[in-house]
Design a protein that fits this description.
alpha/beta, UDP-N-acetylmuramoyl-L-alanine:D-glutamate ligase, Protein-Tyrosine Phosphatase, Chain A, 22% strand, six-stranded mixed beta sheet
């Protein structure tokens, strides 16, 4: 990836980007970049005062001016309480806007327009981050490619990624997340994608989006944002995604296992730690080996291959890029314990569809050995949360597991679903992280396979860590 610096700014460009009002300072003043972090801002950067869930950046403006920062973007309302006259004397640029979060997005959109980079935007209920990372490894084979550091996929994180664009970047691969209606449309407005990827549509973020139809409409806004010269890369194996194909003016390219897909996989084979398949790619075929388990990973890799194909990469280059991918901690990582116990650490996040995929992976990998799952709550499911957790408990049992653990507000629903499918109450357990680990220590035997999964807020990685401390990882 390129090591060059972000594009510089002037106060005039920030005013132009935000349609803001300059309250003091010189429009010609240059800035080396844009920051929202008062703890790590450099003296040459301009500070955008964001009002977050915990801290309000406006409360730190006086401190950072004392530290030498000479550029501020603040809300018009908060500006009334600020020492504008004193700042003017000290040659501080202060720009007032109606909403600083929106202004941050507007600044990022301006930066995207003036850069030379093209943009891939990825959304979906599952697989966004993994697809983004595989796509980045593919594009990185031939192009200087920017992508997010961490899960920067919202109205603050995505702009921060775009603000890292430099003159050397040729592509940016971005992830678009949502909790509420209108967020995908706004993120697409900010990043103005050339290529849009829709991985799948399932019951995620129902608390804000209301229903699966609401999820479809929200995800479909990415496709609506694409112009006639754009490319819409869609999962041919998801009927809801295919329904949205008519939402776009862009050329549609299908990927998946379906015979209708231009980019598809055949001869899928799993081993304990990897998965391989034959990639059918523009009339060619090539064998690909992924350094991660789980059949669902094939779909993520195919999406990345479809992007590579659309920008003109060769089949061999795409293969090398896919095989260079390494999974993040907490995303289908296999932990081999010294006692012969195998742990599937999939604790990064969870929703009903990703739970189903994880159960299928456990069932495939355990190859007849005893299987056990530890389930943390799936968050943001709204009024459907109780029924969806009950269904997941039942699905876990139908996957053939021997024991089920549940943690969280909906633990009783999960175990009730397991009992509905015939699992004995003596084979289910509800408790805290510590309670679950202590019971597992008494139950687990050499050869067992254990899946640990839950939403990010449930911190299920604590269970994995405590088991590693107990058993020791090979």
């Amino acid at each position: 990836m390129t090591q060059s610096h972000p594009l510089p700014w002037t106060a005039a460009e920030i005013v132009e980007a935000t349609s803001g009002e300059i309250l003091c300072g010189d429009l010609r003043r240059p800035f080396s970049g844009i920051s929202i972090d008062s703890r790590n801002i450099s003296a040459g950067e301009a500070f955008v005062a964001i009002a977050g869930d915990i801290h309000n950046g406006h409360t730190f403006t006086a401190n950072i001016v004392d530290q030498g920062v000479r550029g501020l973007v603040v809300s018009r309302q908060k500006a009334k309480q600020m020492p504008i006259a004193a700042w003017n004397t000290n040659d501080v640029v202060c720009i007032a806007v109606e909403d600083t979060i929106r202004a941050l997005g507007d600044i990022a959109a301006f930066n995207r327009r003036r850069s030379q980079a093209s943009v891939v935007a990825i959304t979906g209920s599952n697989g966004k981050t993994t697809t983004r990372r595989i796509t980045t490894t593919v594009l990185d084979r031939q192009y200087d490619t920017l992508t997010a550091v961490g899960n920067f996929n919202n109205e603050i994180g995505l702009p921060l990624t775009l603000l890292r664009l430099s003159s050397g970047h040729q592509w940016a691969v971005l992830e678009l997340g949502t909790n509420n209606p209108g967020e995908i449309a706004r993120l697409a407005e900010i990043c103005s994608p050339d290529i849009g990827v829709l991985t799948n549509i399932g019951p995620a973020h129902l608390e804000g989006l209301g229903s699966i139809e609401g999820v479809m409409q929200e995800k479909g806004d990415l496709l609506k944002s694409l112009g006639p010269d754009g490319k819409a890369i869609l999962n041919a194996d998801d009927p809801r995604v295919i329904q949205l194909a008519s939402n776009t003016k862009a050329e549609v390219i299908l990927y998946g296992r379906s015979r209708e897909a231009t980019i598809r996989a055949e001869d899928v084979n799993e081993t304990k730690d990897t998965i391989s398949f034959t990639l059918i790619f523009a009339g060619e075929s090539i064998s690909v080996h992924l350094n991660s388990p789980g059949r669902f990973m094939v779909s993520n890799a195919l999406a990345a291959a479809a992007v590579g194909h659309q920008i003109g990469l060769s089949c061999e280059t795409v293969k090398i890029g896919i095989e260079a991918f390494k999974p993040l901690s907490g995303r289908m990582n296999i932990k081999h314990m010294s006692g012969g116990i195998q742990i599937i650490d999939d604790t990064y996040n969870a929703n009903p569809e990703s739970m189903k995929a994880a159960f299928a992976t456990l069932n495939s990998m355990r190859a007849g050995a005893r299987g056990v799952v530890v389930i943390g709550d799936m968050l943001e499911l709204g009024h459907q949360a109780p029924s969806l957790h009950r269904k997941i408990g039942g699905r876990a049992v139908r996957s053939g597991i021997r024991r089920l653990y549940a943690y969280g507000e909906f633990a009783a629903e999960v175990t009730a679903g397991a009992h509905d499918e015939g699992m004995s109450p003596t084979d289910t357990f509800e408790g805290t992280h510590d309670d679950i680990v202590e019971d597992l220590k008494n139950w687990l035997q050499p050869g067992d396979w254990l899946l640990v999964k839950g939403s990010r807020g449930m911190a299920m990685e604590k269970v994995v860590r405590k088991l590693q401390e107990w058993a020791g990882e090979i």
